[in-house]
Amino acid sequence: MRVINAGGYVLEPAKTVAAVTQANPCKVTTGASHGFATGDRLWLSGLGGMTALNGRFVDITVTRATEFTVGIDTSGFAAFTSGGTAARVYTLATPYGVADLAALKYEQSADTMTLTHKNYAPRKLTRAGHAAWTLSLITFAPSQQPPTGVSSSSAGTAQYYAVTAINDDSGEESLQSADAGSRTETSTLTCTPLTGCTSYSVYKRKNGVYGFIGTASVFQLVFWIIGGDPSRYRALMPVTVLEKLVFGVPVALLYAQGRAPAFLLPFGVIDLMLGLGFFLAWRATPRS
Question: What is the structure's pLDDT at 217?
Fold first, then answer.
């Protein structure tokens, strides 16, 4: 892929030319290692004496770290005197062939373009500057790592559960953990805490399909802090009410629709009662 800006190809930083031969093929020497490769296309300009080479694109063959030939017979050109530069046309390698371009689909947002093609994995083309582009595969998996060390207090094989972690800052949910087996429907699941995650979603496997059954939040510390100085932390009490409602209300609704097992209902009722208690405590606690 080559980039056009202001009507011309975008070039990389130019290399200073030290010598140009009158020969077939013409050999160009640079003042320092050029870093070019055979097949690169260069733009020549500012050459003193051999002005016939100025303003030309040339495909090169590298012969030494400071030399390359341009495939032009310059034996009849004026002799080179001094000055001039050779700049490589900025090129970004892509997996697409010429025949693929008609079916290549894109969507752009600012300096990022999403590219799709039926024969290739989706890619993201990003511009950081006129001569600074990257083409990378799109990763669809979340960056948040899943919980590890998930286990049941009643280890067994009758039921299987999996846990995901929810990132506090982004709200991104991880992929599921490895399964934790339990011999009973009711058990306590534990896992290794992850930095930046205070909420974990629990899923139950049934007939090979995982269904969401609840979210566990690390709120016990918050309750303990509020209990130490209710007046000071009164503003946090509504948050604790919501924390109880997000489990109690869905359980009650799902049970009423026949979509939640009966054993979950008492736990949902307990959370609703605790939520009500926190609300009453909030009303009764004077402002600090």
Answer: 61
Domain boundaries, the chain: 4-88, 98-137, 148-284
> Does the 4-88 domain belong in CATH 2.40.30.180?
yes
Nearest-angstrom CA–CA distance, 166 and 146: 9
Among residues 64, 42, 67, the alpha carbon closest in space to that of 53 is found at 42
DSSP element (H, E) containing 275:
helix 264-284
Q: Which residues pair with 35 in a beta bridge?
A: none
In terms of C-beta density within 10 A (0-12 exposed, 13-18 middle, 19 or more buried), how is residue 188 classed? Answer: exposed
Nearest to 83 by CA among 150, 20, 152, 160: 20
What's the chain's length in residues? 288
Task: Identify the weakest region by mean pLDDT among 92-106, 217-231, 233-247, 273-287.
Answer: 217-231
Give the pair of three-digit tokens for residue 100. Answer: 């693929």
Neighbour count for residue 123 (Cβ, 10 Å): 20
Return phi, psi of residue 166, to 5°. Answer: -115, 120
Two tokens at 141?
């998996």
**CA 145/CA 197 separation, integer angstroms:** 10
pTM (2 decimals)?
0.57
Strands 209-217 and 197-206: antiparallel
Around Cβ 250, how many Cβ atoms within 10 Å?
Answer: 18
